[in-house]
Predict the structure.
Amino acid sequence: MTTKSPVLFKPFKIKSVEFKNRIGVSPMCMYSSKDGFANNWHLVHLGTRAVGGAGLVISEATAVSPEARITPDDLGIWKDEHIEKLKEITAFLEGQGSVPGIQLAHAGRKASTTSPWKGGRLIKEEEGGWQPVAPSAIPFFENNPAPAALDAAGIRKVIFNFREASKRAFLAGFKVVEIHAAHGYLLHEFLSPLSNHRNDEYGGSFENRTRLLLEVTRAVKDEWPEELPLFVRISAKDWAEGGWNEEESVKLAKLLKEEGVDLIDCSSGGLVPDVRIPVAKKYQVPFSEKIKKEAGIMSAAVGMITTPWEAEEVLQQEQADMVFMGRELLRNPYFPLEAAAALEADIEWPNQYLRARTR
Ligand SMILES: Cc1cc2nc3c(=O)[nH]c(=O)nc-3n(C[C@H](O)[C@H](O)[C@H](O)COP(=O)(O)O)c2cc1C
């Protein structure tokens, strides 16, 4: 594989937004907020990755309502007061030449738990937790209390909350919105027959199970400027018998494309516990490739992509349009700067760091 003129560092455009490269910081929960507010942790964490050269920096799963949080420490965007600090962050990211993105999320039946480093256990309502909601009253863990199945008014409220969050995301200066429909959270729970046992127009057939995500997408689009990119993250499959699968993902991606979605971010799993996922290098890339080719929509590959050459190869082989990275960028926020050197791409460095450019 030649590394001259690497695709990874070729600037490209989606709608009106130019990305200086194809590296995206994958959304990662920080569990560091109080009452949903961003703070200096988020500024420094996201800001460092922008200084490190990522073309796109996507905020963690950001709750569209208080009960949409996984934990009480989640980032949120359910009230206007949240906008101010987020605006400071997006301005910093843009100042570094990175595109600021936000992932809008609802945790569904996986809500009301403690943060992972506090044990990740369910918080009961009497301990300050709240009642999780879901398509059906089926808990994630068999022994947990059942979530409340959303009624028609509850579903309308979810759609409204995403719409309002989209409006605030724009006011906060984000240039990409990603709807979180993966990892077993609310929108994914509606997609999968394993968590959705409804017998109304939101359950049963493929058309019914995808209805909520399509309605949420329309609501987000109503408030999101036409010229700005809209992404959706899905779990391409549940890795469980009788679950959501790749063929349905392709069908869904076609529908999302018709709705004006620009890119599908292809993850997998998270809907049910105790499944065997063959985690290995680039293990989710085939999903990105399949969706890109068969649905004719842009895609992002994510998961166990940790070297410049792996990322470059995915793009050269047209298996994805962007590469999102999570843990490698936690270990090394300067990965993009170092990857450019490794692939012999000539990119701009932050002026303040120029003296470190040549070893
Ligand atoms: C600390 C941490 C928090 C995460 N939080 C989110 C999240 O908020 N939203 C999401 O869609 N995925 C989340 N993920 C998954 C990552 O975005 C990514 O898909 C996953 O880590 C696989 O990519 P990697 O192998 O490059 O880390 C999280 C992962 C980590 C490690």
About this structure: The chain has eleven helices and twelve strands. The mean pLDDT is 97. The longest strand covers residues 56-63.
